[in-house]
């Protein structure tokens, strides 16, 4: 993976493809960090109450919800999980079940067979190796079936167990349009974003970028004219939208 220094020399955080109204491609690393800080501060003022959209009441429910949310909307996951959580109230309950026992509860979710296998296998490992509790380290989480880097990061952030900057499709899209990264690989996007903000801001920045991507910086029709950070955004790759207002 490229080092931060290498990316900064190459201007990895600057625009690769300029949208209308974009700033020059060359941007000093310190200027990019300041712009990132200002963007996150402005989003936090615009959305002071953002939180994860998934509904959960325990570390086990959080992990299950995040696994189920892969290639599926949070709203649909939230429709399925109340009955699932009632039927399987603990890691032990999942661990002694067969994957097909979960099917009736999650059948409407994408890839439900694979997700059921992952959940049962993960809970068996949690029972066997972690005394029925979700691991509080990235290494422990990523050792579980069905848990990759993004899932582990989301779980760590919302358990308050570690610093991470999980990158989903929304975070990646917003980061590229803001000129904070040129990368498309989520791990490289995360590395670029972590270099721009203090560690203590990673969790809230992740959540703010997710919600900004859902509410304003949408894939097909970004709402640049009402975007709270339009004056900080070069709109990399965005075409066919009105020029945003410029603010001080």
| Rg | 20 Å
C-alpha geometry? elongated
Query: What is the CATH level 1 assignment of the largest domain?
Result: Mainly Alpha
CATH architecture of the largest domain: Orthogonal Bundle
> Unreliable stretches, pLDDT < 50, 5 or more residues?
1-24
Query: Biggest β-sheet, characterized?
Result: none
Looking at CATH, the homologous superfamily of the largest domain is Helix-hairpin-Helix base-excision DNA repair enzymes (C-terminal)
Distance between the termini: 37 Å
Number of domains: 2
Order of helices and strands: HHHHHHHHHHHH
Number of helices: 12
Structural class of the helix and strand makeup? mainly alpha
Overall residue-averaged pLDDT value: 88
| DSSP strand count | 0
Q: Helical proportion? A: 40-55%
Helices and strands, with pairings:
Elements (H helix, E strand, L loop, with lengths): L3 H7 L18 H18 L12 H10 L5 H14 L3 H5 L3 H8 L5 H18 L8 H5 L6 H11 L9 H9 L8 H11 L5 H14 L33
Helix pairs in contact: 3-9, 6-7, 10-12
Task: Tell me what the structure shows.
The chain is mainly α and 248 residues long. The protein has two domains: 4-50 and 166-232, Orthogonal Bundle (Endonuclease Iii, domain 2); 59-159, Hypothetical protein, domain 2 (Endonuclease III, domain 1). 52% of the residues lie in helices and 0% in strands. It is built from twelve helices and no strands.
